[in-house]
TrEMBL record:
InterPro entries: Aminopeptidase_N-like_N (IPR045357), Aminopeptidase_N-like_N_sf (IPR042097). Coiled coil: none annotated. It comes from the Eukaryota. It comes from Parastrongyloides trichosuri. This is Peptidase_M1_N domain-containing protein. Residues 6-56 form the Aminopeptidase N-like N-terminal domain.
Amino acid sequence: MIYLYEPISKVTFEISLQIKKYLPALSNLRVKNIDKVDDGTKIVNFESTMHIPAYLVAFVVGEIRFIKNFDGTRYRAYAIPGN
């Protein structure tokens, strides 16, 4: 696999996901807004990225749960239920 680090290989991403309304959507981007749709879905719109290579874009949609901790550093750890 070839990885391109040249500025020309970097682009801006604008990601929107239309998913079932009860599912969470995660990304390494911040959520800009969520639009509710009448068919039982929602559209999750994420903030635009800076110029980055495509391999740095990530998102997850599914029946996932999280645990969180506030001991100095705030974080969440996600997993599928039962794990």
